Amino acid sequence: QMQLEESGGALVYPGGSLTLSCAASGSICRAYTMDWYRQAPGKQRELVATATAGGSTNYADSVKGRFTISRDNTKNTVYLQMNSLKPEDTAVYSCYARTVGASYWGQGTQVTVSS
Fold it and tell me: Are 5 and 22 in contact (CB under 8 A)?
């Protein structure tokens, strides 16, 4: 079993920056692929960024060049650094851990980009 807890969501001005954290407990996350998803009101959930257990990363086109996913396996934590935020980045951001035979969701953290 793994528990995931996101933190760092906030209200931020357009153009601002924010770093989200996803802390894992109950299991070691270094063997898992870690994803950040987001869901805006009235929209489908969107995969934002992925960090594989092997160290590679992938991003949605909408955030490429602005967001950076990273992981600190010593702290069992995954981060999402978000720069140049736009109002359309407003959503609930959730982390997702997956490996063969198991997957886990966090509860999400709200990010609001507004002036």
Answer: yes
**75 CB-near residues (< 8 Å, 6+ apart):** 23
Q: Is the separation of the CB atoms in 32 and 53 below 8 Å?
A: yes
Beta bridge partners of 52: none
Distance between CA 82 and CA 15 in Å, rounded? 10
pLDDT, tens digit, for every residue of 34-58?
999 999 999 999 999 999 988 899 9
The closest of 61, 12, 11, 67 to 36, measured between CA atoms, is 67
**Interatomic CA distance for residues 94 and 97, integer angstroms:** 10
What does the alpha-carbon distance between residue 59 and residue 29 come to, in Å, rounded to a whole number? 20
